[in-house]
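Hi R.,

As promised on Friday, here is the backbone we talked about, encoded as structure tokens. Could you run it through your design pipeline when you get a chance and send me back a sequence?
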């Protein structure tokens, strides 16, 4: 899954793909490098980020989704928590919804259920403005994450959003210390017991910077290590900025796991 942020303030690529033409060209590059999904986001959810007006998010995202579907025939995921955005991008041909708030905002659950699209539910603690201010958990992080996601799955199924349409994201960096993130990845197989495909996003995140003491532009090697570990622990979708090297990391890891040459996406 290639990341396409059409925002001015995302943590590592804010403002780089804000125009429609820039967004299309970047998506085209990621598809050529092996991305199977393009994930479009119109509101930054980095730590400390402020929410944007609903109409502004829609104005950023809708033209890009429409163009990606029409011009590139891409499978487009939309990273949003708002019901109005979900409804609009569904009508424009999006193929997946990706919600960091796990459909908790008003109207989101019914909009997602009505879309007939696959939906990714992510774990987080708190909201972007405050989530990294001393996050704490009473139990092991993998159990806390699993219990939250199981609860949200039950709510989704009760609303008509069946389990076979759900994906789960552990939410690395969303209300978690470096130690929480490292333990969560180490024990990520715990989440496989929930029975849904796992989506993992660790690309360029601060956990890499803090462990390796690297600025955001030097975090690729550490990120590739996390990609390989995530695949070994059951991740089915990797949400990344740097598609080509991550495709190599996935395929090399998969070849070792299968004891032979072969591409996971085949």
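Update: got your reply. Pasting your designed sequence below so it's all in one thread:
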């Amino acid at each position: 899954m290639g990341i396409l942020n059409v925002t001015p303030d995302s943590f590592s690529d804010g403002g780089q793909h804000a125009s429609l033409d820039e967004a299309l060209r970047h998506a085209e590059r990621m598809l050529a490098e092996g991305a199977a999904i393009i994930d479009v986001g119109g509101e930054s959810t980095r730590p400390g980020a402020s929410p944007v007006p609903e109409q502004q998010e829609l104005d950023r995202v809708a033209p890009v989704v429409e163009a990606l579907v029409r011009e590139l025939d891409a499978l487009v995921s939309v990273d949003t928590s708002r019901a109005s955005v979900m409804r609009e991008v569904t009508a424009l041909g999006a193929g997946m919804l990706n919600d960091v708030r796990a459909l908790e905002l008003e109207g989101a659950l019914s909009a997602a259920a009505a879309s007939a699209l696959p939906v990714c539910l992510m774990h987080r603690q708190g909201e972007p403005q405050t989530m990294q201010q001393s996050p704490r958990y009473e139990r092991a992080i993998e159990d806390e994450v699993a219990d939250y996601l199981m609860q949200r799955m039950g709510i989704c199924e009760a609303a008509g959003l069946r389990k076979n349409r759900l994906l789960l994201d552990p939410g690395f960096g969303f209300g978690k210390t470096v130690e929480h993130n490292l333990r969560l990845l180490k024990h990520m197989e715990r989440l496989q017991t929930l029975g849904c495909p796992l989506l993992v996003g660790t690309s360029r995140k601060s956990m890499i910077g803090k462990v390796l003491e690297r600025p955001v532009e030097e975090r690729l090697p550490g990120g590739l290590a996390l990609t390989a570990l995530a695949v070994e622990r059951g991740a089915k979708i990797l949400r990344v900025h740097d598609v080509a090297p991550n495709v190599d990391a996935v395929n090399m890891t998969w070849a070792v796991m299968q004891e032979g040459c072969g591409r996971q996406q085949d």
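One thing I noticed while checking it: The longest strand covers residues 2-5.

Thanks again,
M.
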